[in-house]
Specification:
Layout (H helix, E strand, L loop, with lengths): L1 H8 L8 E5 L5 E4 L1 H7 L3 H4 L11 H17 L1 E10 L5 E12 L5 E10 L1 H23 L3 E6 L4 E4 L1 H7 L3 H4 L4 H5 L15 H8 L3 E9 L5 E13 L2 E11 L1 H28 L4 H16 L3 E6 L12 E4 L3 H7 L9 H4 L5 E3 L26 E8 L5 E9 L7 H78 L6 H30 L6 E5 H15 L4 E6 L4 E5 H17 L6 E8 L3 E7 L21 H4 L8 H11 L4 E6 L3 E9 L3
Parallel strand pairs: 17-19
Antiparallel strand pairs: 1-2, 1-5, 3-4, 4-5, 6-7, 6-10, 8-9, 9-10, 11-12, 11-15, 13-14, 14-15, 16-18, 19-20, 20-22, 21-22
Bound molecules: adenosine-5'-diphosphate.
Length: 677
């Protein structure tokens, strides 16, 4: 029987699949050449000798034991996988299809089985599995976020980095197109339609997106900068999905901003160094320093205040500002010596506060009690003293920001650096300023010296001329007297003697005036005071002047008694001087008025003439020593000291003196004298 079966099967001897038969005991009763070759046995070694379970793995033996009765019963087994063990022990994965053969009584005779070698399939499968594991390992561990999006734009895959980046799980993100999950708005708040997104267009339009910078949105609504690439995937020429690779640029951008900030700081530091070291103008230095440090610290506003105290004990007004209008500080007034400012001005050191509104030192000073109304909204506060090389505090640099914790330690150190450079520049500028002031003073003194030299020469000219006139007439009348005596005609002698006396008086007055000037200069003008009636003095002066100036009408008006406590002679000298001038400078109109009034504390005395008057530009000068109005000096004799002496006398009596005049219309000289107690 075995032969007849095996003969029938021999037709399959060399087909490219395995063929074998086993009997009811599981013994192999036939195996074709192909399967023998796969297993490395000869027909003699296997047929009738080995059971089918002998060429199976342990698992396979178990499987065979359960399935063999089924074959006997049902007559067939389909696509059962077994791993055959070759003679050399290698494993041969295979799929076996079996049919049962029965005799006429229906008893099982044997099986006819066809074996398909699936070793190559298994290799591909395991390769595929390995590939899968590799892909998963890569995507799971990738730091870059990976998304896969189908034709509808729905996300079908995310790696853990992607989930961490956007904060959604794959389940959540699948709800709608990925674009509407993480890319729905632009950073400016405007809606971002999917059709405009280059990442979503990559698939339908078949192009790769490379190094595309954009801004995505996390589940919590925050925006974050990214760089991404998108590649469409095609299957059989049909676009099926897009792979998107996304990198979060937040850190990188922060880093770049930091680097740029550092670069800017260096540039500022460099430029400020150059600018202020070559600068001698204090205001320019302070402005430069304030501007640069405000930028360096990232402050919204910065200011430099001098550490100076005015007479009232308040902080001094000089300051420079940056980032805020001056009015903002003017509303505020000066930084007072409050607990907040005090450490800076007293040189204790830097004050850096993240939130000054929460600082315990803050807000204790009246009248503001905290932030003054309309004051700049300072929350972050930084103050750095600027200290001179002699260790005195020149001032302070103050910075503010409306947000908390803006000023870093690094910013503080940079400002300290600039502050020390600034201190040197300020010291230099101050030295230069002192030098310039001293120079200017020297020049002023030199001009004054020259001027006084010129005045002295001028005075010498005038004085010698003034002295010469009476001397010449003295000499002439003396000669006339001598001649008269020689000729024994004495009729004119009394007149000549009178004239010589006039000359002597004139000379005496001139010399006395000059002596008075010297006394005033030396501070030796002494007063012989007594209480007397000033009106009487005025009357006497009018009489005396009237004698030497006939033709002038001098009228006195006002009160009749004026008790003063003063030097009678000196005050008479003043009256005579004012009356002499009134006459001298009124050649055409001979009416002169003296008005005397009193109020609660003083007498007001006025000498009013209607003479040539005084040009308005010269009114304030005529009381100075040796001053004469140029235009008049040829026409009228004089030394230019009468008014100077008069004003000194009046002032030494505690009075005031002045003039009102209009050129061509006359002058009113006035002075006051305190009432006698
Ligand atoms: P002097 O009369 O000797 O020049 P004063 O000191 O008395 O010196 O006066 C100074 C100058 O003031 C005079 O040179 C004259 O130009 C002007 N001055 C003084 N008094 C009068 C006056 N009453 N009217 C006009 N000019 C006057």
């Amino acid at each position: 029987m075995r032969n007849s079966i095996t003969q029938a099967l021999d037709a399959f001897r060399n087909v490219p699949c395995g063929v074998h038969s086993i009997d009811i005991n599981g013994t192999i009763i036939y195996m074709n050449q192909t399967e023998l070759e796969w297993l490395g046995y000869t027909e003699e070694e296997i047929v009738g000798k080995l059971k089918f379970s002998d060429i199976l793995t342990t698992d396979g033996k178990e499987k065979f034991r359960t399935h063999f009765p089924e074959l006997i019963k049902t007559g067939k087994l389909r696509n059962l996988e077994f791993v055959l063990v070759t003679k050399s022990g290698d494993l041969l994965p295979s799929i076996i299809n079996s049919n049962a053969m029965y005799d006429e009584n229906g008893s099982f005779l044997c099986s006819h089985s066809f074996t398909t070698n699936i070793a190559h399939l298994k290799i591909s499968e395991s390769k595929l599995k390995a590939q899968d594991i590799l892909t998963k390992t890569i995507t799971d561990n990738a730091t870059v976020a990976l998304f896969m999006m189908n034709k509808e734009g729905i996300c079908t895959f995310m790696n853990p980095a992607a989930e961490a980046m956007i904060g959604y799980t794959l389940e959540e993100v699948k709800q709608k197109p990925l674009h509407y999950m993480i890319h729905h708005h632009r950073p400016d708040g405007s809606f971002y339609p999917m059709e405009e997104c280059p990442i979503d267009r990559a698939l339908p339009e078949n192009f790769d997106v490379r190094a595309h910078e954009d801004v995505f949105i996390r589940k919590d609504g925050t925006f974050f900068p990214v760089i991404c690439a998108a590649s469409p995937i095609f299957e059989n020429g049909m676009p099926v999905s897009t792979v998107i690779e996304v990198r979060d640029l937040t850190e990188q951008k922060k880093y770049i901003a930091e680097i740029q900030g550092k670069k800017l700081s260096l540039e500022i530091l460099n430029s400020i160094g150059r600018t202020i070291s070559g600068q001698l103008d204090l205001q320019v230095i302070l402005q430069e320093v304030t501007d640069a440090t405000t930028k360096l610290t990232g402050a919204e506003f910065g200011a430099f205040f001098y550490n100076a105290i005015n007479n009232n004990g308040d902080a001094y007004m000089l300051y420079t500002l940056s980032g805020a209008p001056r009015e903002a500080f003017e509303k505020f007034g000066m930084p007072r010596n409050t607990a907040v400012f005090q450490p800076t001005f007293s040189g204790e050191g830097v004050v850096r506060v993240d939130d000054i509104t929460k600082d315990s030192k803050y807000g204790k000073n009246s009248p503001h009690h905290g932030m003054p109304k309309g004051h700049l909204p300072v929350v972050s506060y930084l103050a750095v003293p600027v200290i001179s090389k002699d260790n005195s505090v020149i001032g302070g640099l103050f910075f503010g920001h409306s947000k908390p914790a803006v000023f870093t330690k690094e910013a503080e150190e940079m400002v300290l650096g600039v502050a020390s450079q600034a201190a040197i520049a300020i010291d230099n500028a101050r030295l230069f300023e002192d030098l310039r002031t001293a120079n200017n003073k020297n020049e002023e003194l030199l001009t004054l010296a020259k001027e006084s030299d010129r005045k002295k020469d001028e005075f010498m000219g005038i004085a010698s001329h003034e002295l010469k006139t009476p001397l010449t007439s003295l000499k002439a009348y003396t000669q006339l007297i001598v001649n008269a005596i020689e000729q024994k005609d004495l009729s004119n002698v009394p007149k000549y003697i009178y004239k010589t006396e006039e000359g002597v008086i004139k000379l005496e007055r001139l010399v006395n005036d000059l002596l008075d000037v010297s006394k005033i200069q030396a501070g030796r003008l002494q007063l012989n005071t007594s209480v007397f009636d000033f009106i009487k003095l005025v009357n006497t002066s009018i009489e005396n002047i009237g004698m030497i100036a006939p033709g002038y009408r001098i009228e006195r008006i006002g009160i009749d008694v004026a008790r003063v406590n003063g030097d009678r002679e000196r005050l008479e000298q003043v009256m005579i001087n004012l009356l002499t001038n009134a006459i001298k400078y009124s050649p055409d109109n001979k009416d002169i008025v003296i008005s005397i009034k009193r109020d609660a504390s003083v007498y007001h005395i006025m000498v009013i003439d209607q003479g040539i008057g005084i040009p308005s530009g010269k009114l304030d000068k005529i009381f100075t020593r040796f001053y004469r109005i140029d235009d008049n000096s040829q026409r009228f004799s004089g030394l230019g000291i009468g008014l100077y002496i008069s004003s000194e006398i009046i002032k030494s009596h505690g009075g005031e003196i002045g003039v009102e005049s209009k050129e061509g219309e006359g002058s009113t000289f006035w002075f006051t004298l305190p009432l006698s107690p």
